Amino acid sequence: MEKLITIKNASGLHARPAGMFVKKAAEFKSTVEVLAKGKTVNAKSIMGIMSLGLAKGDELTIVANGDDQEVAIAALVELVDGGFGE
């Protein structure tokens, strides 16, 4: 299962939002990956997420596979769409 979304917060996926994203992804049993800029990284890895260097307006695809994949994607989409509370 996958979902394409766009970064909405002004500062992009810098340290604090990346940390929030990784923490949320780690709550799920499913494998969760992020595809962006031609790279695929583990959504549960802070270094992986930071290495993407995502800024406002960049698109990413969240891919989840496992028992709770739908809930995982919904939670991560909500986090990104909400601008990480910024």
From TrEMBL:
Its main location: cytoplasm. Keywords: Cytoplasm, Phosphotransferase system. InterPro entries: HPr, HPr-like, HPr-like_sf, PTS_HPr_Ser_P_site. It comes from the Bacteria. Pfam families: PTS-HPr. It is found in: Cytoplasm. Residues 1-86 form the HPr domain. NCBIfam families: PTS_HPr_family. This is HPr family phosphocarrier protein. It comes from Romboutsia sedimentorum.
